[in-house]
Amino acid sequence: MSKSIAAMHVAKKQLGLDDETYRAKLAHITGKSSARDMSEPERQKVLTVFRNEGFSSKASEHRPDGRKKLTGKFAPKLQALWIAAWNLGIVDNRDDAALLAFVKRQTGIDHTRFLTDGGDASKAIEALKSWIKREGRVSYGNSQGQEWLQSDIAKVCWAQWRKLEPEAELYPDTKGFAAEALKIAGIERLSTPLGLLKPADWRLISNELGKRIRARKAGA
């Protein structure tokens, strides 16, 4: 069996396709319902479509602790939002099962790997964003005139800080937020503009502030 055929079979399993759906997709993409009847370029065309739908054969599909990541085209976005909600203290369970239960309530679909329609995905994504915006006071779409607040993860961090420091004023240069954010990110020069922080820095900050929020919530 060629590597491309083996990859197609892995994609079939990973995307949760039954035999009938799988063969129908192959026929739609190439006009042939069997991988063995295809030329190599045709197989690669199929794999490209599957990758766009969430298939990944890379080791990165596993988390550092060895658990498998959720699959599906919209899984990364949903997971990022779910972790943001967890770090804001909105949800009590960060596990994938809790996210999948939320997705099913919003869409009726059992797993993110079956979530292929943009309209269905939007129901779950927008419901989660609305929840985060309402309960976590995350101002999606509003950077308050601050360049560093243009990214969603930075907005989440600023909302976390306001939750930890209720007296924080409107503008994000108050209550020591910048200094604390840079300290958490391991940046020694505390005069560094927040706009220079990378997404990985903001995730580190969000995770740390999330620990503080959960600790305060547990001790309340």
Question: Topology of this structure?
Answer:
Elements: H1 3-14, H2 19-30, H3 40-52, H4 75-87, H5 96-107, H6 118-136, H7 152-164, H8 177-184, H9 199-219
Helix pairs in contact: 1-3, 4-6, 5-6, 7-9
Report on this structure.
This protein has three domains: 3-57; 65-136, no CATH class; 147-219, no CATH class. The protein is built from nine helices and no strands. The protein has helices at 3-14, 19-30, 40-52, 75-87, 96-107, 118-136, 152-164, 177-184, 199-219. Helix 5 (96-107) crosses helix 6 and helix 7 runs parallel beside helix 9 (199-219). The relative contact order is 0.09. It holds the Pfam family GemA. It comes from Martelella radicis.
- Any idea what the shape is? elongated
Order of helices and strands: HHHHHHHHH
Secondary structure category: mainly alpha
Number of helices: 9
- Proportion of residues in helical segments: 55-70%
Alpha-carbon Rg, integer: 21 Å
Question: pLDDT below 50 for ≥5 consecutive residues: which ranges?
Answer: none
Mean pLDDT: 86
Organism: Martelella radicis
Pfam family, one: GemA
Protein name: Phage gp16-like protein
Notable characteristics:
220 residues; Phage_Mu_Gp16; mainly alpha; Phage gp16-like protein; 9 helices; 56% helix
